[in-house]
Every structure is written in structure tokens, then in C-alpha cells.
Fold this protein.
Amino acid sequence: MGREVAVSNSLGIGQISLNAGWYGEVTAGGFIGRRLERLSDYQMLNGCLAEVQARDVGELWLLCDAQTRLSERVALAESVRRRP
């Protein structure tokens, strides 16, 4: 789980690379991280977010990591729920 961050231009407005499954954008007010893949309805119902906002890159990376871990656990719960 490497922490890779690259701002695309000198103005600080553009895209950044985050941990697997996420991409980020630098905005005038901070940073936005968005998932690359769609969440299931079950994941969204149980608190997983498709987008997170942060004031700095470290915070953004942590939020994306936390959401990735949450979505993995919720997906596991969803698969257990489907068992007969």
C-alpha cells in the first residue's frame, strides 16, 4: 500500500494518483478522492462512499484507505448474507 502522490501542474490544480482503486483531484478548496469502480447498493447502504474530501493529501490518502478497507469488509458481509 504505497503512498503515491503526483500533482499534475505547477498551479496545484489537477489530478493526483492515490492508492489502488482511487484517483484524486486538487481543487481550489482542497482535495477530492473518487473511486474508480462502482460500489454495490449494499455497500452504499452500509456507509461506503464513492467520494471523499480532504484539506491535504495525507488526509485524503487516509480517507481513501479507510474507505477501501470498509468497502472490502462490507463486500465480505454481503457475500456471507447471500449464502443459503
Notes: Strands lie at 14-17, 22-27, 30-35, 51-54. The longest strand covers residues 22-27.
